[in-house]
Specification:
Number of helices: 5
Largest sheet: none
Strand content: under 5%
Oligomer: single chain
Length: 171
């Protein structure tokens, strides 16, 4: 009877040690790797361009031109949009003039983006067919949607996915 008890104690001890090691290993894999850095926007743009070129089966020569042109396009777009500042919870309501100015700034930015898109459409037309350009735009939209979906899964979007209700004007 004593031998059985020793065997059970050893078995329980081994099980507890195995459980602790499993939990410790799982916890270590869950920790972000501090040496692993986020890739830069430039690197992301290059990866996206190479992915699009691969998806559309461009030749090496066309891929080289496309990657350079696509990255230049992205840089011009980024120059228009400084990174967003986090919204402040205690931000006072804007005046009508401030709201009007922000809306007009958005219109100006949209017009500049359109000008840049048209410029790079002309550049793409020098080495891509019109059907290829359409496919490039389609792939770009798909990639943007995929990145937005991944970003929202990271907890940055609203939990229920529903749009927020607007406050009435008389508040």
């Amino acid at each position: 009877h004593l031998k059985r008890k020793e065997i059970m104690q050893k078995l329980i001890r081994s099980f507890v040690i195995a459980l602790i090691m499993t939990v410790a290993c799982a916890a270590s894999f869950a920790q972000p790797n501090p040496t692993q850095k986020r890739i830069s926007r430039e690197q992301l743009a290059e990866l996206q361009a190479k992915h699009i070129a691969h998806e559309l089966a461009f030749t090496d020569e066309v891929t080289e031109k496309f990657v350079k042109t696509f990255c230049d396009y992205q840089k011009e777009i980024w120059a228009l949009r400084p990174r967003r500042q986090p919204a402040k919870a205690n931000k006072p309501r804007m005046s009508e003039q401030d709201s009007e100015a922000r809306i007009k700034q958005r219109f100006e930015r949209s017009e500049k983006i359109l000008e840049i898109r048209q410029k790079y459409y002309r550049e793409y037309s020098k080495f891509l067919t019109q059907a290829q350009i359409e496919q490039v735009y389609k792939q770009e939209r798909l990639t943007r949607a995929r990145l937005a979906k991944r970003k929202n899964k990271g907890g940055k979007g609203k939990a229920d996915g529903k749009p927020r209700k607007m406050r009435p004007n008389n508040e």
